[in-house]
Amino acid sequence: MQPAHHSDRASHARFEATHWSEVLEAARSGATHGPEALARLCERYWQPLYAFARRRGHSPDDAQDLVQGFFEHLIESRALGTIDQAKGRFRSFLLASFQNFSLTEQRRAQAEKRGGRAQMVRIDWKEAESRVDLAPADGLTPETVFDARWAFELLNRATRRLEQEQTTRGKAQMFSILRPYLGDEGARVNLSYEQAARALNVGLPTLKTLIHRLRRRHAQLLREEVAQTVLDPDDVESELHALCEALVVAGGRVQA
């Protein structure tokens, strides 16, 4: 792995680096910033939980209640301090905990009004619902949808960081033209290599070099994002493999 450029590090610093390991350590030590750190981490990855709940058949309102109630429970409880260090993948922990919470949460017909809770995690429900596809999906389980949405969240974060880096360097236009070649699900390749080269006023060899460098940096940023969700650095490769497999299984049936 190549050392990051100074401006890369500066860009990275602007994205709050909340590691799963830091959250667990704060919880075990009783640090007062533990709940806040967990809330920041949950803000990144709540969409896969919402997609999971909707795929399970919950209405938008019920799915919202479940996700928000789960985060309240998670942030206010002290369960984090008892997590086995050897089983510390945030993705696995979050889904298993949410499933347990969903099973034990009893629907309250006349309890709090929806929206009456203090929202501890910033959530854009409208955006989440726009990404939910409930059409028959030929064996696409809620768990598969969760894992695919999780993978997309990490990919999108890596792409946004790369875009910020390139913009900081005055290369926003170049990134806009070359972004589709990252394989980013959110961008479609509309230009051939020849057309992209002409748009950037470079030769084909230079274009291919630029694309190669962007892909390499994007892969590095993705690894950094994955590393923040596991406790053991040795788990990064297997977690990457699991997420790639989830995207293959989803086969384009889960929105980016």
**What global shape is seen?**
globular
Evaluate the radius of gyration: 20 Å
Average pLDDT confidence is 79
**What is the terminal separation in angstroms?**
27 Å
* Binned strand content: under 5%
What structural class is derived from the secondary structure elements?
Answer: mainly alpha
Could you give a short account of the major beta sheet? none
What ranges have pLDDT less than 50 throughout 5 or more consecutive residues? 1-17
| Structural domain tally | 2
The amount of helix comes to 55-70%
Compute the number of strand runs. Answer: 0
Order of helices and strands: HHHHHHHHHHH
The number of helical segments is 11
Question: What does it look like?
Answer:
With 256 residues, this protein is an all-alpha fold. It folds into two domains: 19-132, no CATH class; 139-256. The protein has helices at residues 6-14, 20-29, 34-55, 60-76, 90-104, 125-130, 142-168, 172-178, 193-200, 204-227, 236-250. Helix 3 (34-55) crosses helix 7 (142-168), helix 7 packs antiparallel against helix 8 and helix 7 packs across helix 11 (236-250). It is globular, with a radius of gyration of 20 Å. 29% of the residues are buried.
